[in-house]
C-alpha cells in the first residue's frame, strides 16, 4: 500500500489561486495556503487586500480564475458544492445577517433540517450546537431579544450544527463588550474544528491563533507564528497593520 494513501488531507489547501473581478480588478495573484486539521489561523491584512475574495472561494461563492481550492481533500467545484458548503461554515460579522427564524432553536435547526435531518436526531444536533456555545437555555427565545454577543454565539451555533470541517469567522470580536469578547474566545478555544479567523483585531488574533498569515495586494506576504509577525515592525508598517496604542505583543504569554 502506498503510505501516502492513508495520509489525512489538510482542512484547507489553496494552490496558485488567482481571481479577477468582471470589471478587470485583479484581487488575488497566485495565493498558496495550507491549513492543517485543528489549526487556528488568523487571516490578516489591510482593507482591500483580498481577504474577502479568498474566503468567498472556500465554499464556491466565487470560482477560481486560476489555481485550485480543496477542503479536506474535496475540490471546491460545482459538483461538490452541497458538501463543500456543509464543510465550510462562515460566521458573518453581523449575526443579524445569519439569524432570521422566530426562535433560536429554529435558526440552529435550519441548516441540518435543510440537509434532511429530522426528529430526535435533529433535536440532538441543535442541543449539541447550542451547548457548545453556552446558549442551550435560550433555545426558545427570539434571536432579536438577545444581546449582540449572544446573537453572535447563536450564529456560531448555526454553523456548528452542520458539523463543519472549517469554521470561518469574519471579524468575530467586532462590537463585543469585554465580557462577551472573552466568552467567545473561551468558546473558540474549546472547539475541535479548524478555524480561519479574518480580523483586524490583532490582540484577538494573538490570543486565539498561534499562526497567522498576512494577505496584502492579493499576495500572501507572510506566514508564521502570530507573535513573531506582530513583532515585525517593518512587516506591520509596510502592510498597514497597527497594534492598539501601548499594546506590546512581546509582553503576551502565548501558547506554543
From TrEMBL:
Would you tell me the protein name for this molecule?
Answer: ABC transporter ATP-binding protein
For this UniProt record, give its keywords in alphabetical order, as a comma-separated list. ATP-binding, Cell membrane, Hydrolase, Membrane, Nucleotide-binding, Translocase, Transport
Which protein family is it in? Belongs to the ABC transporter superfamily.
Q: Topology with regard to the membrane?
A: Peripheral membrane protein
Q: Which GO terms describe its cellular component?
A: ATP-binding cassette (ABC) transporter complex
Q: Where in the cell is the protein located?
A: Cell membrane
Q: Known InterPro entries for this protein?
A: AAA+_ATPase, ABC_transporter-like_ATP-bd, ABC_transporter-like_CS, ABC_transpr_CbiO/EcfA_su, Co_trans_ATP-bd, ECF_ABC_transporter_ATP-bd, P-loop_NTPase
**What terms describe the molecular function in GO for this protein?**
ATP binding; ATP hydrolysis activity; ATPase-coupled transmembrane transporter activity
Quote the gene name from the UniProt entry: ecfA3
Organism of origin is Streptomyces platensis
